[in-house]
Amino acid sequence: MRSEDIAKLAGVSRSTVSRVMNNYPNVPEETHRKVMKVIEQYRYEPNTSARVLAGKGTNTIGLFVVSIADRQSSNRIYQNNYFAPFVDAIVDTANSLGYYVLIHTVYTQEDFAKVRQAFLQRRIDGGIIVGTQTNIAMVREIAGLQAPFILIDYDVSEITDNQLDQNYMSIINTDDYAGAKEAVAHLISLGHREIAMIAGRANTYSGRQRFQAYVDTLQAHDIPFKESYVLTGEFLKQKAYDEVKRLIRNGERPTAIFSANDDMAIAAMEALREEGLHVPDDVSIIGFDDVPVADQLAPRLTSVRLPLYEMSKEAVHTVTAMCERRQVAFHTVQFPTKLMIRESCKEL
Fold first, then answer.
1. Average pLDDT rounded to a whole number, residues 102-111
2. Strands 338-340 and 302-305
3. Is there a contact between 292 and 85 (Cβ–Cβ < 8 Å)?
4. Does the domain at residues 3-46 carry the CATH identifier 3.50.50.60?
């Protein structure tokens, strides 16, 4: 069935059918209802290739999930406690708005070419990039295409300094600095002064913010900063596990650990248990992200909650608004965090 047939059955013009299909606002409600009734009755599906050739959209957004540092697993995106719920929420939200989601994984620097190709080949109307490491060259290249895209977890100042704060780009972050500051301050309020940190990657915005908050909060409470208490976790379970093992075997005994994400906190708990230490009796632990499994551990993990669903919803609504040209200006959003206090921390 063609759009001409839909028009004939609904008693309207072909251009009216086109306006209904493309969600134009100037279609009378009764006309919209008649056209949609025919479309649903005959299960009409527009030809995507024809839409692209005619300059229409594909009703598809690209989701590019970046995980370059982790080389341990070929399907690491779907085993990651942060990425998995993010992907689910974006797909669900997009589907509810009538959009499909084309998911790409970026495991190497060369894989960034997938982002550019998806736009140039017009397979997507807009894109969402999550897990981004500092890669201003990639951002500049995509910005040059003047296509709608969202960056999640990216330094806004880097964008503005490079004069890339232009139309069809948005950045969505969480207030990681405030969240990390609250977590470390909570440990201090419990009497801890020997506080180690399992740091994330310094080439990510969130990694830098969480580490800086740790340093600043110690300083604000006159607690000496110890280089040996900074563990290089890189947001990876195995790295965190190895670093905690090394710390304990070197004779270092912090009373508390702040981890830059939950996956590393969970790995730390396993490493401590194998070294004969108990959480929270011997070592208190706080994670970050508040992934679903955090509340199912024994002991239940205290963590800084990120509003992943709200972030996903905002990302999809913003990119679709840009695709439909309801929003074109450079746009930034920062979501608040919340400390979820559970059983993994103990007062000294």
1. 81
2. antiparallel
3. yes
4. no
Q: What is the pTM of this model?
A: 0.80
H or E segment at 246? helix 237-249
In the chain, residues under CATH classification 3.40.50.2300 are 60-173+308-335, 176-306
Residue pair 282/272 in contact by the 8 Å Cβ criterion: yes
For the ranges 13-17, 183-187, 204-208, the maximum mean pLDDT occurs at 183-187
3-state helix, strand, coil in the chain (%, to 5): 45, 15, 35
CATH superfamily ID and name for 60-173+308-335: Response regulator (3.40.50.2300)
CA dist., res. 43 & res. 268, Å (int) = 53
Residue with tokens 């299909």: 21
Q: Which residues pair with 333 in a beta bridge?
A: 172
CATH superfamily of 176-306: Response regulator (3.40.50.2300)
